[in-house]
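Hi F.,

I've been meaning to write this up properly since the lab meeting, where we talked about keeping a consistent format for the predictions we share between groups. The idea is simple: the sequence comes first, exactly as it goes in, then the structure tokens exactly as they come out, then a line or two of notes. No screenshots and no reformatting. I'm using this chain as the first example so we have something concrete to point to.
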Amino acid sequence: MSTEVRVPTLGESVTEATVATWFKKPGDAVSADEMLCELETDKVTVEVPAPAAGTLGDIVANEGDTVGVDALLATIEEGEGAKPAPKSEKAEAPKEEAPVESAGGETVDIMVPALGESVSEATVSTWFKKVGDSVAADEMLCELETDKVSVEVPAPSAGTITEILADEGETVSAGGKLGVLSSSGAAPAKSASKDAPAAESEAPAKAGDKDVEDAPSAKKMMAEAGLKPEDVKGSGRDGRVMKEDVQAAISASKSASAPSSTPAPASVPRAPVAADDEAREERVKMTRLRQTIARRLKDAQNTAAMLTTYNEVDMTAVMDLRNEYKDLFQKKHGIKLGFMSFFVKACCHALKEVPEVNAEIDGTDIIYKNYVHMGVAVGTPNGLVVPVVRDADQMSFHRIEGTINDMGKRARDGKLSMAEMQGGSFTISNGGVYGSLMSSPILNPPQSGILGMHKIQERPMVVDGEIKIRPMMYLALSYDHRIVDGKGAVTFLVRVKEALEDPRRLLMDL
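Output, unedited:
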């Protein structure tokens, strides 16, 4: 009997991948969850683990082949097979057995939990416990940081920590091992001391080299591009060269060879800094979340034909309606009536008339969405995140307010799940809470529109031939001009303005 190895889910809007590297060959013995091959998409690199232990049978998709989601990659035959374990397994065997021998009792591995769709690795942010500490079941052991959320790792059972395999700052893969827990209640000192000399003895041998091997996909790309390892500066842990580093090196070499009077900003070294100034500076590594924010925002500028159109809205009607019903609203629903529910409702109303603002481009296709999953940008101490209010067009005012309030609170506490930040079709960003009077928001790919709200400020306006003081707000709609024409963008913003200046239009669907 054989077990099929298939292409896993590759992430939102990703339907195919390229087989980059096979780590095993037919006839090799494999253990459950051991990495078999690596797939590359246009967004991420995905490792495919073995679904069961056995012997690798036929490889259906070879390196370089393009495969779709759930396509057959290979088969695994039952049994360990007649062939001896591959070299990689022999080399890793002592590592796996060492904690068990040193523990002197039943041990439990502390593993990296599922990190979410399209997220394959994380950085160990903080260990709350150290070797020798006793822990209770489900007690928090450490915190991992991905490029989207923070993930807490609970103790799988009660016991004592006997070994920590991934220190703070190290990068770990989904399903990797973080440490070992002994349920015997005693922390053997043998475990830590046994590994220490080994680490020390290895250090001199590797002093002139990297601690870890470069990523397989990076090696392959370097070979194809004719680059040497010393030509690429690694950004991974301990200088490990990643696929992105090779891409950057290739781009840099192209830029250098192209005739240009102005060097690329990325190639310009930092200007010399006086010793006095350098002593007063602080260099801090960017968090994975901040790196992802930077990359995605720049990708949005490079990919979309982004344009922004502006308008202003008189907030008098909304403010009067809110003041009239806010006490009754809070008494009945137990939550305050804010402005966000009005803006969400107004945007849902406008998106029905201008559906291309709620669409996205997929290759040469346009995907029109018959639903509104509203992203609401929230500022947190670690950076900007965008939780998604699903089916916002079908929600009442109090459900919208309650959902946004709950998600905003959990976003600031770092408690949002990956699923709650994916699948948005349109986004609202409220810079007004920080005092912004006007700005141009950047698209949240692959979305085609984002509405920027701003500060409400009283200004003199002409109303019915008279100058009156009105609470005014500037609105900004950034949109992807590839699928949204100027007429559609302006129409959308005008419909939002009309709905806010006369909220009765929302009730009458006008």
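Notes:
The chain has eleven helices and 27 strands.
The CA atoms of residues 122 and 172 lie 5 Å apart.

If this format works for you, I'll send the rest the same way.

G.
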